[in-house]
Design goal:
By secondary structure, the chain is an all-beta fold. It has a single domain, classed as Methylamine Dehydrogenase, Chain H, CATH 2.130.10.10. The protein is 2% helix and 49% strand. The chain has one helix at 3-7; strands at 10-11, 16-20, 24-25, 34-40, 43-48, 53-56, 61-64, 73-78, 84-88, 92-96, 102-106, 113-119, 122-127, 132-135, 142-143, 152-158, 161-166, 171-174, 181-183, 191-197, 200-205, 210-213, 220-221, 230-236, 239-244, 249-252, 259-261, 269-275, 278-283, 288-291. It has a six-stranded antiparallel beta sheet, with no helix packed on it. Strands 1-11-10-9-8 form a five-stranded antiparallel beta sheet, with no helix packed on it. It is globular, with a radius of gyration of 17 Å.
Length: 298
């Protein structure tokens, strides 16, 4: 069976504990690399290697909700109501209304889908070669024209709409997922992640790159306290929190001045989210970190 055929299936919850923040893997298999995490309706949803989709109600113990298929999930988002959408390699998407049953489908592209967010009534996915796809419900998707053909790594929705970032310092913006405009970021380094909180967009990337913007248009240098690849950023508890390679964690109260924090790990972390008073970071080998304040990790 080819991958396309494999993806048109419904995958049900296995109800098996896969890995734990405290104990690591609870099974015989090495935990999957996890590349993205989000929070909604009291549930943390993480996605990653072999199209793994795992859920947790406490941010510590994660349960496998989708069986393994060859490929990688790289993004996941919640619409604030009742729909989760995950995206990954070769145009694969997965949708769920309960985080237990996931429906896999394919967009009409073989490009990698790398990031996703929701806002202004739309899910927006970004990916390779400047790809942007938009959907009001996670089911029917429209490809949107963009002013770039570089790989887009991530997208975030904030007060001034969607902002997508990618390689070579590319930043593009849109009010609602339609009609994208290039912005000058002031760098040619690769961006890997972007988040929004407290009126500020924060974008992070290669070699410790951190930029911030209050409107998505005008970008400024934040402090760069470490020269290492930074992968993702989120906001909660009054702080912006960044994660990256070799266990790197940073925090900032204003999105401009960042301080290095001790995560207690040397694993690469690819994604971080905040929900229910807890930061949860995920990364390679299924490693999970928790923090209540973005400063002290366990």
């Amino acid at each position: 069976m080819n991958r396309a055929a494999e993806c048109f299936v419904t995958l049900l919850a296995s109800a098996a504990l896969l890995f734990s923040a405290a104990c690591g893997s609870t099974g015989d298999d090495f935990p999957p690399n996890l590349y993205a995490i989000t929070f909604g309706e009291g549930v943390f949803v993480a996605v990653g290697q072999d199209y793994s989709i795992a859920t947790s109600i406490d941010g510590e113990d994660f349960y496998l909700e989708a069986a393994s298929i060859e490929g990688v999930m790289q993004g996941v988002a919640f619409d604030g109501d009742d729909t989760w959408v995950a995206c990954g390699d070769d145009g694969v998407i997965a949708t769920s209304t309960n985080t237990s049953t996931w429906y896999f489908d394919l967009l009409p592209t073989d490009k990698e889908l790398r990031g996703i967010d929701h806002g202004a009534g739309n899910f927006v996915i970004v990916g390779d070669d400047g790809l942007v796809a938009r959907s009001p419900n996670g089911g029917a998707w429209d490809n949107e024209e963009t002013p770039t053909n570089v790989n887009l790594e991530d997208v975030a929705f904030g007060d001034n709409g969607f902002v997508a970032v990618g390689h070579d310092g590319v930043v593009i913006t849109s009010d609602d997922g339609r009609g994208w405009t290039s912005r000058h970021s002031g760098t040619i380094e690769d961006f890997f992640g972007i988040g929004f909180g407290d009126g500020t967009y924060v974008a992070v990337g290669r070699n410790g790159l951190i930029k911030f913007s209050h409107n998505g248009v005008d970008w400024f240098d934040a402090t760069m306290p470490i020269v290492i690849n930074l992968r993702d950023v989120t906001y909660g508890e009054g702080v912006h929190v960044v994660v990256g390679d070799e266990g790197t964690t940073l925090s900032s109260s204003d999105g401009e001045h960042f301080v290095v924090r001790d995560s207690g790990s040397d694993r690469d972390f690819d994604s971080v989210t905040h929900g229910d008073g807890l930061f949860v970071a995920v990364g390679r080998g299924g490693r999970i970190l928790n923090s209540e304040n973005g400063t002290h990790w366990f």
